[in-house]
């Protein structure tokens, strides 16, 4: 029978897999790269990535539910930013560190 420690390790693996699944789309990686420089609205991201607003909104929703991005409302606009808890320390912040793995977002 598996002990508590075994179950905890399995939970960590599932959490990490959830982050990786949320970033497992090329557009979501592009969104993460764009958000490295700061918060952006859905329409700003759509213009930058040359995608439909609905498509960007869908990708951001997946990233939000995985905990990769956070939102902040400013009037009628919602701005998305990378979850600071995952950004590597330092000025450039070019990677996401999930503890189980690190994703380089460098251009």
Identify the notable features of this structure and list them briefly:
globular; alpha+beta; Arc Repressor Mutant, subunit A; three-stranded antiparallel sheet; 107 residues; two-stranded antiparallel sheet
Major sheet attributes? 3 strands, antiparallel
Average pLDDT value?
83
The first-to-last residue Cα distance is: 46 Å
| Count of discrete structural domains | 1
CATH class: Mainly Alpha
Number of strand segments: 5
Uncertain ranges: 1-7
Share in helix: 40-55%
Strand content: 15-25%
Structural class of the helix and strand makeup? alpha+beta
* CATH architectural type: Orthogonal Bundle
In the CATH hierarchy, what is the superfamily?
Winged helix-like DNA-binding domain superfamily/Winged helix DNA-binding domain
| Major β-sheet strand ordering | 1-3-2
**Gyration radius over CA:** 15 Å
String of helices and strands: HHEHHEEEE
Shape: globular
Number of helices: 4
Fold-level CATH name: Arc Repressor Mutant, subunit A
Please tell me about this protein's structure.
- By secondary structure, the protein is α+β, with helices and mostly antiparallel strands.
- It has a single domain (4-104), classed as Winged helix-like DNA-binding domain superfamily/Winged helix DNA-binding domain (Arc Repressor Mutant, subunit A).
- Helices cover 47% and strands 19% of the residues.
- The protein contains 4 helices and 5 strands.
- It has helices at 4-22, 26-35, 42-49, 53-65, and strands at 40-41, 69-74, 77-82, 95-97, 102-104.
- The strands form 2 sheets. The protein has a 3-stranded antiparallel beta sheet. A two-stranded antiparallel sheet has the order 4-5.
- Strand 2 (69-74) and strand 3 form a beta hairpin.
- Helix 3 crosses helix 4 (53-65).
């Amino acid at each position: 029978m598996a002990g508590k420690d075994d179950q905890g390790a399995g939970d960590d693996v599932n959490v990490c897999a959830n982050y990786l699944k949320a970033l497992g789309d090329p557009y979501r990686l592009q969104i993460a790269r764009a958000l490295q420089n700061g918060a952006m609205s859905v329409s700003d991201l759509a213009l930058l990535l040359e995608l439909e607003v609905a498509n960007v909104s869908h990708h951001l929703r997946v990233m939000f539910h995985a905990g990769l991005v956070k939102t902040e409302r400013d009037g009628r606009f919602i701005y998305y930013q990378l979850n600071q808890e995952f950004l590597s320390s330092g000025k450039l912040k070019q990677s996401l560190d999930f503890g189980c793995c690190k994703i380089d977002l460098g251009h």
